[in-house]
């Protein structure tokens, strides 16, 4: 079935590999037009304060409705968009869409913080700040309603520039959180150097709580360290009552995960506020 053997007898071509490759090529190609063709949309996943049990913020998560492949996950297409450079245009669309949502539902959303994921490539661009400043200047976004989620590895990449850029972002009143904390294999020294507000414990640690008790030790340590440094802590990927109990007992500030809600449409999110 579509298999060919190399001269040394090894298999260098399979149908699966070919399918994967052609899907990738097709996606990379179509990324160029996904904004104009209005194929992107955002879902929002609530972030709940563990002491009040209220929704205090929501993470914007991008979705792509591809005309042929249907729903393509951001885990698949964001890395491709970083390669092709389309992430810049897509990233700007995200800010614009969030800003439209705020304008449309000003009264309901006025106290909500929306967390926007920033990719390495976006953070590296000088134009990011100009773009954000423009939105603030035109009163399209209120900086105190915005938080930026940046992964540990993106933070570490080009530290000197990032310190500068993130400092300016903080001066605007925008909050910054460290996404997927604990998975970056990086030195912790950046925690002292970068202006951040919140640490997001990666869901792999929360997930492991059920099977590996040691994971609890790591979670506790992350929470204590973050608090001692003056940062809030949110746990990602919380799915069970037991995980919630553990996190409450250990003073985690917020949670996000299927236990409370999957990512949902903005209308549904608004229905759950108050
Ligand atoms: P992330 O920023 O760490 O987002 C959390 C991911 O975990 C989301 O997957 C979310 O749907 C999923 N999740 C939330 N709660 C649970 C849970 O309880 N259990 C499990 N198993 N999963 C849960 P999603 O939406 O597929 O996004 C995957 C990644 O793609 C994100 O990870 C982020 O790195 C990237 N991404 C998503 N949207 C954007 C975006 O707008 N811009 C950029 N640059 N990256 C994005
Ligand atoms: Mg995130
Ligand atoms: Mg994350
Ligand atoms: Mg992630």
From TrEMBL:
Record domain EAL: where: 24-274
Protein name: PAS domain S-box-containing protein/diguanylate cyclase (GGDEF)-like protein
């Amino acid at each position: 079935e579509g298999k060919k053997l190399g001269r040394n007898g090894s298999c260098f071509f399979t149908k699966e590999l070919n399918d994967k490759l052609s899907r990738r090529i097709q996606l990379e190609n179509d990324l160029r037009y996904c904004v104009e063709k209005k194929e992107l949309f955002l879902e929002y996943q609530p972030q709940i304060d563990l002491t009040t049990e209220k929704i205090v913020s929501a993470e914007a998560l991008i979705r792509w409705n591809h005309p042929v492949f249907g729903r393509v996950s951001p885990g698949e297409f964001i890395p491709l968009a970083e390669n092709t450079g389309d992430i810049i245009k897509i990233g700007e669309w995200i800010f614009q869409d969030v800003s439209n949502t705020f304008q449309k539902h000003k009264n309901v959303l006025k106290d909500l913080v929306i967390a926007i994921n920033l990719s390495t490539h976006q953070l590296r661009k000088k134009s990011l700040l100009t773009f954000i400043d423009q939105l603030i200047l035109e009163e399209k976004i209120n900086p105190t309603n915005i938080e930026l989620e940046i992964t540990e590895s993106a933070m570490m990449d080009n530290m000197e520039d990032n310190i500068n850029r993130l400092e300016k972002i903080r001066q605007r009143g925008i909050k910054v959180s460290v996404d997927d904390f604990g998975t970056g294999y990086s030195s912790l020294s950046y925690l002292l150097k970068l202006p951040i507000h919140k640490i997001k414990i990666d869901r792999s640690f929360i997930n492991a709580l059920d099977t590996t008790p040691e994971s609890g030790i790591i979670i506790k340590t992350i929470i204590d360290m973050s608090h001692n440094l003056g940062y809030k802590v949110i746990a990602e990927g919380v799915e069970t009552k037991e995980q919630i109990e553990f996190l409450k007992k250990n003073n985690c500030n917020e949670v996000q995960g299927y236990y409370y809600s999957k990512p949902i449409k903005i209308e549904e999110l608004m229905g759950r506020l108050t």
